Amino acid sequence: MICIVQNRYRDVLEEGLKLADYRMTEFASSGGFLRKGSTTFLIGVDEEDVDKVHSLMKDICRRYESKRGRPEPEHNRYISFMIDARDSLPFLKGQN
To answer: Fewest CB within 10 angstroms: 23, 41, 76, 78, which?
Structure first.
């Protein structure tokens, strides 16, 4: 899963996903998706866990917002999409 997250949610999402035993690689990013500073997470997720991860991420963001007293529109928190690991094989074949 590739997930582009607003920086304000970066720490809480990283911590919450790690506590749920999801591992990720992250890097700073910017661009047109959210039009602000952002972090991109690459998360290894089994296909059957995708809905569970999305639900967990929504819950983490909502808890964070409730602590801060500022609910945000859901479409402004993050954007995510899946890439099948089989689609990455052409990239891996070129490496020694």
So the answer is: 23
d(CA 37, CA 8): 9
pTM over 0.85: no
If you ran DSSP here, which 8-state letter would residue 72 be given?
-
Dump pLDDT digits (tens) for 9-61: 999 999 999 999 998 999 887 776 556 678 999 998 888 999 999 999 999 99
C-alpha 54/C-alpha 37 separation (Å) is 21
Angle, helices 50-68 vs 7-19, to 10°: value is 130
Report whether 5 contacts 37 (CB < 8 A). Answer: no
